[in-house]
Amino acid sequence: MFYRAVIDSLRSWADSARRKPLVIRGARQVGKTTVIEQFASEFDTFLHLNLERKPDRKIFDDSESAVEALKAVYLLKNKAKCDGRVLLFIDEIQYSPAAVAMLRYFYEDIPDLYVVAAGSLLETLIDDHISFPVGRVEYLALHPCSFSEFLGAIGETSLQEALLGMELPAAIHNRVMKLFNEYALVGGMPEAVALYAESHDLVALRKVYDSILGGYRDDIEKYAQNKSERNVLRHILMNGWRFAGQRIKFESFANSNYKSREMGEAFRTLEKAMLLELVYPTALTDLPVSPDYKKSPKLLWLDTGLVNHASLLQNDLFGIQDISDAYKGKIAEHVVSQLLFSQETSVLAKRIFWVRDARNSQAEVDFAIDLDGVLLPIEVKSGNNSKLRSMQFFMQQSKSAVAVRFWNNPLSRDFVSLPSGKQYTLINVPFYYAECLRHLSLSNS
User: Fold this and answer.
1) Per-residue pLDDT tens for 199-242?
2) For 126, which DSSP code?
3) In sequence order, what E strands does 229-323 have?
4) From edge to edge, which strands make up the β-sheet containing 352-355?
5) Of 101, 159, 239, 440, which cross-links 254 as Cys (Cβ 3.0–4.6 Å)?
6) Which one, of 129, 103, 126, lies nearest residue 116 by Cα?
7) Residues facing 301 on adjacent strands
8) Which domains can be identified in the chain, with CATH numbers?
């Protein structure tokens, strides 16, 4: 077990005077249960229910009130009541609609109780089969481990602290990049990170990846509404990983015979399960922006380590000096995107990229994010400024005076002049600072 940054968000939730029951949302195997068990050490009493078990589930089926249910939990778990803080964790809550409904009564009738719920297949069931009490619960998203969490797991705590403070000296840049490349290879699935921290054996990780991917494929039976949808979902999970970081079309995806409608529905089912995200473009260069759902989306999976394994890319990445050279730069783009998203706890957060609104134009900026009220363009590539032509098109239209490029070299700033005479600051950020972008000074001086 190693420290996850989301525990800070859990502490903020626990300290809030307006605290509501919290529903943790995230894909299977991202560490939801482990995180709550770690967080539970900060409470006087921890009551853990797993509603896959009939005795735990029966509590909610047979109880007429939240007070009665809590009494039954104490008795079932052989715990004595205390005057301190009590955390009730309801895992696999999707197995009991009665437990979901009772969340509102925990909120209304026992406000001093700290209640957290989670479920492996929760995302695909929300709205269609499960309805959480509106206004009576709050949500928190959990993603795979970030690079800083990876550093903590492998014992590089001094580097972890310096990274989060954006205080890494240029003299150790190469060492940190070597570790970052290891992270890009391993990914952020907690089980893979923990095993790598213990053994530093990449070969041993194959069983972990196979187990996780096998679990996702087994879940198809629960995601799918019918045999046809099951086959489409299986096709995506077998063939879709090699399209990571690329723009896709639903029609005949991955050389299939499936139509756009059925493929789109299957992708959206996997998106609800938080296994992937369909990232849509915008042609706007200033806030507010909205994605254009008529254009082709970019496919991003939940974890780059899984992408590497499922796409058979690990051998190509092993020992590489610059991940911008791997897989046409898509692995670098994918892992940066994962890190930009790693600290995002809102379940409504979505990524976006930019395309030029001009006939036959191929101009595309990898990502555009709202940072301090500015739409910040982000490119992921090495090389000199002259290769950032899409960025130049964006900046020519934008009111922003700052742009960001992630690359393999140390942190630096360039002052770029466009043909029109406009000038802007290009901040060149080493890959390992991707999760810290929101702490970066965007001053153009």
Assistant:
1) 999 999 999 999 999 999 998 888 888 899 999 999 999 999 99
2) B
3) 276-282, 298-301
4) 298-301, 276-282, 352-355, 364-365
5) 239
6) 103
7) 276
8) 6-141 (3.40.50.300), 147-279+288-342 (no CATH), 352-439 (no CATH)
